[in-house]
Amino acid sequence: MRPLLIPSLACLARLSGRFCCLLALLIGMSTATTQAGDFDQRFTLNHAAYGFEMGLGQTVDIPACSNCPPPRTSHRFFSLVTSYERNLTGLTAEQSPWRGALFWRIEGGVAVITDDPGANENQHLVNFSPLMVQYRLFAPERNWNPKFLGGIGLALTNWRDFGGQPLNSEHQFLIHLGAGIEFSGAEGSYSIDYRLLHVSNGGSGDPNIGINAHSVTFTIPF
Predict the structure, then answer these.
(1) CA distance 6 to 29
(2) Which residue numbers in the chain have pLDDT < 50?
(3) Is 2 among the domain residues?
């Protein structure tokens, strides 16, 4: 698989500026198309929505890896993700604090390590995760609501272990666990999310050097 054409951190900085412009445009589109009423409609059965996410993350040594070569350093990365969601249940548990709805989620995107200028190639991870669910709480009297996410997916990546050892192959499995808060109002909606990402071969090969990472993303629904 050909690496992403991001030759340097300077180039990434230029791209980041373009992404910021794109983000501003998307916020404007969200303001025009995602009104408070649309947020309520999202909790109806079979309602579908799309989203765009920009995020920053860092790999982290949890749990500590006993078979990884030292030094086990962490890396920062920049991510872009698009998503599709469909409401599976409609509004449920209406008389409880867990009032909300369960959504099926598909997402795809890319994450690029930004702080390893000594690498011989651009370190990227291409994500496709079709088996994800997200539970959104809904309280009409609030303009913010929590949400919780989990699921699995697939990746094509040339990311390396923190000590420089490559993963077993470019084909890896992903596990996603996360939570966030979605804000809604007359001008639109957006959310800030945290995710713990696990990348490994799932025991299908040897060695199984897993990589874990934290990420924080800014999400705009459509």
Answers:
(1) 28
(2) 1-37
(3) no
The two tokens of residue 86 are 């469909």
pLDDT of residue 164: 65
Q: What is the pLDDT of residue 36?
A: 42
pLDDT at 163: 66
Asked whether the whole model's pTM tops 0.85, one would answer no
Q: Is 85 part of any domain?
A: yes
Name the domain count of the chain: 1
**Which CATH number characterizes residue 69's domain?**
2.40.160.20
Instruction: Determine the Cα–Cα distance for residues 40 and 33; give it in Å rounded to an integer.
Output: 13
Task: With beta carbons less than 8 A apart as the criterion, state whether 63 and 108 touch.
Answer: no
Phi, psi angles (nearest 5°) of residue 15? -65, -40
Question: Exposed, middle or buried: residue 118 (CB in 10 Å: 0-12, 13-18, 19+)?
Answer: exposed
> What Cα–Cα distance (Å) separates residue 134 from each residue in 8, 110, 146, 180?
36, 20, 11, 10
CA of residue 44 relative to chain centroid, distance:
24
- Domain with 93, as residue range(s), is 9-221
pLDDT score recorded for residue 165: 67
